[in-house]
Amino acid sequence: SFLRGTVCVCVCAGCLLLSSVLLAEQEVENLSGLSPNPDKDIFVVRENGTTCLMAEFAVRFLIPYDVLALNGIDLITEQASLALPRGARIEGSCGSTEAELHISWVNNAYTLRIYFTKVGEHDGKAKETEIWKMSKVQLVYNTSDTTHFINAYNPGKHTASTHRLSALVTPGGRSYVCAAQQTLTLISSDHQKGITIYMSDIQIQPFDIKSDFVFSEPYKCITDQRERLEETLPLVLGLILALIIVITITIYHFHLKLTAQQPQLPRDRSLYKNM
Ligand SMILES: *[C@@H]1O[C@H](CO)[C@@H](O)[C@H](O)[C@H]1NC(C)=O
Ligand SMILES: *[C@@H]1O[C@H](CO)[C@@H](O)[C@H](O)[C@H]1NC(C)=O
Ligand SMILES: *[C@@H]1O[C@H](CO)[C@@H](O)[C@H](O)[C@H]1NC(C)=O
């Protein structure tokens, strides 16, 4: 029962540590706006003198395109990898249930359009809860841009879109936050090629922003919640193990002291039988 007591003390100490680690991390959450990520951009749409849509994220695109093979007959597929440059032009619209963000760059050779919708969801008990989500993403690109599409065959403008999406689902009145990378696949008008969009370091709110330039209460994506636990769990387990070792050594130390104080037992083995 002494061992059980020791283990219990250790587990409780671990719980206290775990909760203090989680509390400590929540306090610095406000500083996430000072991200060291240089690829991250901030987009703000304001209407009637106040912010109605705000988004921060880093984004990269992987776009396959055709080039003529050396034999001059076959087509081979190359991949263009590009990021959103600084100072892109933004436009947007804010409605009560529909919102859009349009980002254009390189003289409109590229346009990224993100569509958001707000819906009421019935949770079974005839009670309605509000959520918003990203409902569609579209990328318009022009393979005549020779900085990214080298020797593109038959260059021209193409449009790639997602199917109807239910991404970034967030409770109404809150902003979606996700540090982990989110991947989207778009189907292009260029021979149904699959375009991949990688978004990371995201904070987005397209509806119900209460004060100018300030995101409402964040809602963390599942990946981030899980990662946080995965980061802290080994630390806590390590601390518990260290504690168990210290306690065991202490017990052993006192045990040695106690036995040393006891009178010496007879050395002769034959005497044991009579005891
Ligand atoms: C942190 O956020 C809370 C609400 O989200 C706000 O009241 C507080 O002023 C913020 N603190 C800093 C330092 O920005
Ligand atoms: C801005 O004002 C116009 C006209 O008063 C109104 O129709 C519109 O809904 C307002 N927009 C927002 C986001 O409140
Ligand atoms: C694509 O880019 C090329 C070169 O900049 C331009 O001539 C062409 O008009 C563009 N295509 C469209 C549809 O805008």
UniProtKB/TrEMBL annotation:
GO terms for biological process: establishment of protein localization to organelle. Keywords: Cell membrane, Cell projection, Cytoplasmic vesicle, Endosome, Glycoprotein, Membrane, Signal, Synapse, Transmembrane, Transmembrane helix. The keyword Hydrolase does not apply. Residues 40-210 form the Lysosome-associated membrane glycoprotein 2-like luminal domain. Residues 1-24 form the signal peptide. It comes from the Eukaryota. Its main location: other. It holds the Pfam family Lamp2-like_luminal. The keyword Metal-binding does not apply. It is found in: Cell projection, Dendrite; Cell projection, Growth cone membrane; Cytoplasmic vesicle, Secretory vesicle, Synaptic vesicle membrane; Early endosome membrane. It is a single-pass type I membrane protein. The chain crosses the membrane at residues 233-254. One of its GO terms (cellular component) is endoplasmic reticulum-Golgi intermediate compartment membrane. Plays a role in short-term synaptic plasticity in a subset of GABAergic neurons in the brain. Belongs to the LAMP family. PANTHER family: LYSOSOME-ASSOCIATED MEMBRANE GLYCOPROTEIN (PTHR11506), LYSOSOME-ASSOCIATED MEMBRANE GLYCOPROTEIN 5 (PTHR11506:SF35). This is Lysosome-associated membrane glycoprotein 5. It comes from Astyanax mexicanus.
